[in-house]
């Protein structure tokens, strides 16, 4: 069996993708030098949507812009040589039985979808991350497969450890290697894990009807690359199925529609060239031919107008709930402008993956439907580690600023407030020092006032009642997380972006 260069490239980049995914984790160091965000920064769809929503350029977009230029020159090679989701689909295609081809997705749908998303981004609602193929894979891994893998390995090892008895010390180095280099740093199970899984599985199920069905008929990134690839000077000859063979239609995963090669769908996998029995297939540069390389694509006005209108209405519909007004909507440290954050975030989940204290989770309701999959801090489940700035390091678009540790410590996430109806010294006349003991701020953002009061038995007691020093509190949430009360905490962190943006 012959192996093409495209297959080798796919395997290498998929392996690189998984290695970077595993490296995007806390491994005992305060700096993450290599992360999966490299794939997002080379993603043209992320770059274009960022430019449209922010109306400005930043250096983190440079790899994506370069990928746009390479696509204009070479064609839609990203899908056939680099894309991790495309490689996964090629691997599972062999295992999924095919139904007789049905063209239920054969339409202009992919163009309407792409332009609706791009125009929505232009109108300041960036939804690209929900359907970006790289984000789909990373979310499925982060929220479902990786935690499940960590739990399975740890559980299996615990059972094996008990089974082997006295010989356990001879094999403990194996688990130590997994723990230090492969397994997730902490066991966290995320909300929306099954939604991420379902979206990933649906893409796999589409393979039951047609090879690379997602890539050819839905994927916004693939559609964008296909449009750019039409400008490529490289051409495949012959551009039609040979009358005496027609095998290319069965071999090609995306490019042939009826008898003619559709250039915007060709992913340059070279399978047709490799398997051509007559050796007729070739790719040439600047070669004029009487053959048409697919029907000349002319962007219909109804596609552009439809995308413009749908993008406009989508932007208004998603902004209707005004997600930034939620009083308990806490974003990662350094996020001072909710509007900018919403336009930059690609919903990749990397910040949640590296969060040391399990403070960040994918949002389902606090930020409205626009905030779906975006990170929110939930103090009752975890808190922002005072000496950690990993989330800003791995964010691919700067939605979470990459602040120095000193800057991050001064960044305000929210503002704590005490509920005197629940706090033990106020409500039950019982001293409790937990919140003050855990506050990491130098000088403490929680102080006490000493008062004399009468408890429920009529006995005089000396109480230390906590109060918040607003000027010092950064809203890290450790006080709420450590509050000993069951259920609702007596101290809660509320959004304070409108009050202040940073500590001076």
Number of helices: 23
Helix percentage range:
40-55%
For the biggest β-sheet, the strand order reads: 1-4
Largest sheet, in brief, is: 2 strands, antiparallel
Shape: elongated
What's the number of extended β-strand segments?
Answer: 10
Point out poorly predicted stretches.
289-298, 498-504
> How much is the radius of gyration in Å?
27 Å
Head-to-tail CA distance between termini: 65 Å
Mean pLDDT across the residues is: 87
- What structural class do you assign from the helix and strand content? mainly alpha
Strand content: 5-15%
Structure notes:
The protein is built from 23 helices and 10 strands. Helix 3 (44-54) packs across helix 4 (62-74), helix 3 crosses helix 7 and helix 7 (109-122) packs across helix 13. Among the domains are: 5-139 and 193-285, no CATH class; 413-504, no CATH class. It has helices spanning 5-23, 37-41, 44-54, 62-74, 77-81, 84-93, 109-122, 128-131, 133-164, 168-181, 193-205, 213-217, 220-229, 248-251, 271-275, 301-319, 338-344, 350-354, 390-394, 405-410, 424-427, 434-438, 478-482, and strands at residues 234-237, 256-257, 260-261, 282-285, 360-362, 375-377, 414-418, 446-454, 460-468, 491-495. The longest helix has 32 residues, at 133-164. The protein has 504 residues and is mainly α. Helices cover 44% and strands 9% of the residues. The strands form 5 sheets. A two-stranded antiparallel sheet has the order 1-4. The chain has a two-stranded antiparallel ribbon with strand order 2-3.
Keywords summarizing the entry:
single chain, 504 residues, mainly alpha, two-stranded antiparallel ribbon, 23 helices, 44% helix, 9% strand
């Amino acid at each position: 069996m012959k192996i093409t260069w495209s297959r080798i490239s796919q395997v290498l980049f998929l392996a690189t993708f998984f290695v970077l995914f595993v490296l995007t984790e806390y491994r005992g160091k305060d700096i993450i030098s290599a992360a999966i965000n490299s794939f997002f920064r080379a993603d043209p769809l992320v770059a274009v949507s960022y430019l449209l929503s922010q109306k400005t350029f930043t250096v983190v977009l440079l790899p994506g812009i370069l990928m746009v230029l390479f696509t204009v020159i070479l064609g839609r090679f990203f899908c056939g040589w680099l894309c991790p989701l495309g490689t996964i689909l090629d691997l599972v295609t062999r295992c999924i039985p095919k139904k007789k081809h049905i063209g239920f997705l054969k339409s202009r749908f992919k163009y309407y979808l792409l332009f609706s998303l791009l125009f929505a981004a232009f109108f300041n609602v960036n939804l690209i991350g929900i359907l970006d193929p790289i984000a789909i894979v990373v979310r499925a891994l982060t929220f479902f497969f990786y935690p499940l893998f960590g739990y399975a390995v740890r559980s299996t090892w615990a059972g094996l450890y008990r089974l082997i008895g006295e010989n356990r010390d001879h094999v403990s180095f194996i688990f130590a290697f997994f723990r230090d280099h492969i397994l997730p740093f902490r066991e966290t199970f995320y909300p929306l894990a099954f939604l991420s899984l379902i979206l990933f599985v649906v893409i796999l199920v589409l393979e039951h009807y047609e090879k690379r069905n997602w890539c050819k008929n839905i994927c916004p990134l693939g559609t964008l690359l296909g449009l750019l690839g039409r400008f490529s000077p490289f051409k495949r000859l012959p551009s039609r199925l040979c009358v005496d063979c027609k095998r290319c239609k069965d071999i090609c995963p995306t490019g042939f529609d009826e008898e003619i090669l559709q250039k915007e769908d060709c992913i340059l996998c070279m399978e047709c060239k490799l398997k051509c029995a007559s050796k007729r297939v070739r790719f040439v540069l600047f070669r004029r031919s009487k053959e048409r390389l697919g029907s000349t694509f002319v962007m219909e006005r109804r596609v552009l107008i439809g995308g413009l209108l749908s993008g406009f209405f989508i932007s208004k519909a998603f902004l209707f709930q005004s997600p930034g007004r939620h009083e308990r909507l806490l974003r990662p440290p350094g996020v001072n402008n909710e509007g900018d954050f919403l336009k930059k975030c690609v919903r990749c989940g990397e910040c949640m993956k590296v969060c040391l204290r399990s403070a960040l989770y994918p949002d389902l309701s606090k930020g409205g439907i626009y905030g779906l999959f975006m990170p929110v801090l939930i103090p009752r489940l975890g808190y922002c580690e005072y000496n950690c700035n990993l989330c800003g390091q791995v964010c691919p678009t700067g939605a979470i600023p990459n602040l120095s540790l000193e800057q991050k410590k001064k960044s305000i996430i929210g503002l704590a407030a005490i509920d005197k109806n629940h706090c033990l010294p106020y409500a039950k006349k019982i001293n409790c020092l937990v919140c003050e003991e855990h506050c990491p701020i130098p000088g403490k953002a929680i102080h006490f006032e000493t008062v004399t009061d009468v408890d429920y038995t009529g006995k005089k007691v000396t109480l230390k009642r906590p109060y918040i020093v607003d000027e010092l509190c950064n809203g890290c949430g450790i006080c709420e997380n450590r509050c000993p009360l069951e259920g609702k905490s007596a101290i809660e962190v509320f959004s304070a972006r409108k009050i202040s943006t940073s500590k001076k």
